[in-house]
Amino acid sequence: MFAYIVRRLFIGVILLIVMSLVTFILFFASPVDPARFACGKNCSLAQIEQTRKALGYDDGPLTQWTNFLEGVVVGRDYPDDPELRKNAPELIADCAAPCLGYSRVNQVTVASEIKEAFPVSLSLAILAFIMWIAGGILFGVIAAVTKGTVIDRGIVAFSLVFYAFPTFFIGLFLLKFIAIKWGLVDVPSYVSIGEGGVGTWLSNLFLPALTLALFFMAGYVRMTRAFVLESMSEDYIRTARAKGLKRGRVLYKHTMRAALTPLVTMAGLDFAGLMGGAIITESVFNFNGLGKLVVDANNTYDLPTLIGLVLLLGAFVIIANIIVDVLYAVIDPRVRVG
Fold first, then answer.
1. How large is the average pLDDT for residues 297-306?
2. Is residue 10 within 8 Å of 325, Cβ to Cβ?
3. How large is the average pLDDT for residues 273-293?
4. Are residues 208 and 327 part of one domain?
């Protein structure tokens, strides 16, 4: 098991390095001049050139990538140009490791922006994840064991309805009617546990998390139902029933173990995607998480912030795949072979 985990970690590190290289090539090998956007519309050619040197855009993509990796490991100083740092020491910005870049738009390091927004997205992702996993698996199993009944058809019908609606519609509906018109809950505004306690933290996250949970839960209900029904048709399940095992024991010990494997993959990748920020949901509820940070950076063409967020989301996906592989090995020991 230990050797299996080490192999997966080694592959994950290689993927992180390759992903960062591809990201830099895609952003900096394009014909669009990032220095022009970073400087602004009214900049002269001299100012654009100064901006290019200050941000290191005058170097090639490979040089910028190696400088970025160095900053992640040991940190770096901005502006990139040594002459500018020498002539204007008051402009020097220290970016401690792990340095993900420096936002010229907001005059702060990208790591500090992510550090401020990350708890919001993390809180939202965890609560939504718990809600959709619990609801999706529960209702999916109920639909499977009551196949062909009114309960089964009702659960599948509701799942299709929620799956058809986009998250911005669900979010706006819940915000307008549940919070504003009917006043069943307060209008959500993110409050950390340290500021308002667990109760206030949960109450403000409830509607945004429910928005995401309803959308993802709909897919998990259908997938759980399909996987459980497929597992229940296997020969070893019929053998277990023939031996006289109770229905509940067969369902939870044998059927669910086989059905969990594909669900683990879905759950890991969906959670990793949310860790990069639920862009639409955070925008609807005005939560200053990673998703809203992406929108703001895109609107202002804050290239360092965009690159840092893309790499962060890619890292989440790779880490999620490693965790999924390890969970596979726990669920089914045969995966460890090879």
1. 87
2. no
3. 85
4. yes
From residue 165, give the alpha-carbon distance in Å to each of 137, 169, 173, 311. Answer: 20, 6, 11, 30
pLDDT tens track for 89-109? 666 778 888 899 888 788 889
Length of the chain: 338
Q: Identify whether residues 67 and 171 lie together within a single domain.
A: no
Contact of 35 with 57, CB cutoff 8 Å: yes
Tens of pLDDT, residues 16-30: 999 999 998 888 877
Answer yes or no: are the C-beta atoms of 51 and 58 closer than 8 Å: no
Tell me how far apart the alpha carbons of residues 213 and 179 are, in angstroms, rounded to a whole number: 17
φ and ψ of 285, to 5 deg: -95, 5
How far apart are the two ends of the chain, measured CA to CA in Å? 11
Beta bridge partners of 102: 109
CB atoms within 10 A of CB 58: 15
CATH of the domain at 195: 1.10.3720.10
Q: 124 and 282 in contact (C-beta within 8 Å)?
A: yes
Mean pLDDT of the chain: 85
Beta strands in the chain (DSSP E): 76-78, 93-95, 102-103, 108-109
Find all residues with CB under 8 Å of 271, minimum gap 6, and list them. Answer: 125, 129, 320
Contacts 24+ apart (CB under 8 A), 105-111: 105/38, 105/297, 105/300, 105/302, 105/305, 106/302, 106/305, 110/304, 110/305, 110/307, 110/308, 110/309, 111/308
CA distance 133 to 324: 15
Describe the crossing of helices 193-232 and 110-145 by its angle, rounded to 10 degrees. Answer: 40
Same domain, 78 and 65: yes
| Full-model pTM | 0.84
Distance CA 173, CA 226 (A): 30
Quick one: DSSP state of residue 188? P
What would the two tokens of residue 232 be? 């229940």
User: In 3D, which of 105, 50, 59, 106 has the Cα closest to residue 79?
Assistant: 50
